[in-house]
Amino acid sequence: MSVSAAGQATAGQAHTRHGVADARRVVVKVGSSSLTTASGGLDADRVDALVDVLAKGRSGGEKEIILVSSGAIAAGLAPLGLRRRPKDLARQQAAASVGQGLLVARYNASFARYGVRVGQVLLTSDDMSRRAHHRNAQRTLDKLLAMGALPVVNENDTVATDEIRFGDNDRLAALVAHLVRADLLVLLSDVDGVYDGDPTRPGTSRIAEVRTPADLAHVEIGSAGRAGVGTGGMVTKVEAARIAAAAGIPVVLTSAVHAADALAGRDTGTHFHATGRRSADRLLWLQHASTPQGALTLDDGAVRAVVEGRKSLLPAGIAAVEGEFAAGDPVELRDATGRAVARGLVNFDAKEIPQLLGRSTRELARELGPAYEREVVHRDDLVLLHA
């Protein structure tokens, strides 16, 4: 055990994080490295160790747990004769197709030791940015929990394209936590927290509490290194923690071996305090999980109306359109310099918009019919982007 880990365990006995220990609904995310062997296959002992913690955490009905699990692609490598994770999307999807079944089968067998049913939920970002799909996902997860099952969530790698991928399961976990109105998000990996430098070097220490983004201002999250803040994986975890914290959900980021301590509220890993309030579910997905299918360029008056006035985007304020998109798709709203100022769900197909540019809704209704007397992007389907 390292000095940091030993100190962590000692401190954990004397301190309980309020708001973490008593969290009722918890989303737990685990990375591939915490579930697989060095050769890439599933490690049954590691899976069982995680399941032991989660099953005991929900025993007695005190906690509801949703598990966001990576590992499908890694689990599918060996059965397909692949020595390493492929770079091309087609072979990644093939590996995910084989591996997802193996992963869920392993979870089913492990949780069965405790009489716990597992329900698989596969998501794409496209599912979450559309109204009907978003509500269906929410209802499914709520119903699984109500019926006593433990949802196991993963990105639907077998069908997701580059355009509709979450990109990483850390971000997916943050968004799922908001979707299910979780009280806590726990991010588990092979790293035991955020450090103020390379944790392999003497003199660095674990950052136990992050109360505001300013607490990490001095930490180079993107720097090179073997572990801690120097890994690419830590970048995505910190970003996921920020997304969840800004949405009113506290986060504990630690290693899988400290999962029990994290759920118990003991001093392990890095605790990100909630920094914001919960927003409309769909808007969080729109901001962090959607990929714009096109762009609308706004005149100066429309930019002020959307950004400062928080108003809907009307046809009269649009100067140009680009891309191929359908009604309901996410689009980027740009100012005259090309800077993205907002993102929203558009109410018209791309081919319809050129005839609307610069015209009032009243004029369009007279000429084209009442269906055109409406906003191009309604303010309820719009999020501002902050640099």
TrEMBL record:
* Chief location of this protein within or outside the cell: cytoplasm
Q: Describe the location of the PUA domain by residue ranges.
A: 294-373
Domain of life of the native organism: Bacteria
- Keywords, alphabetical: Amino-acid biosynthesis, ATP-binding, Cytoplasm, Kinase, Nucleotide-binding, Proline biosynthesis, Transferase
Question: Its pathway?
Answer: Amino-acid biosynthesis; L-proline biosynthesis; L-glutamate 5-semialdehyde from L-glutamate: step 1/2
The GO terms describing molecular function are: glutamate 5-kinase activity
EC main class here is: transferase
Q: Which reaction does it catalyse?
A: L-glutamate + ATP = L-glutamyl 5-phosphate + ADP
Quote the EC number.
Answer: 2.7.2.11
Q: Which family does it belong to?
A: Belongs to the glutamate 5-kinase family.
What role is this protein assigned? Catalyzes the transfer of a phosphate group to glutamate to form L-glutamate 5-phosphate.
Q: What is this protein called?
A: Glutamate 5-kinase
Source organism:
Streptomyces ureilyticus
- Lineage from the top down? Bacteria, Bacillati, Actinomycetota, Actinomycetes, Kitasatosporales
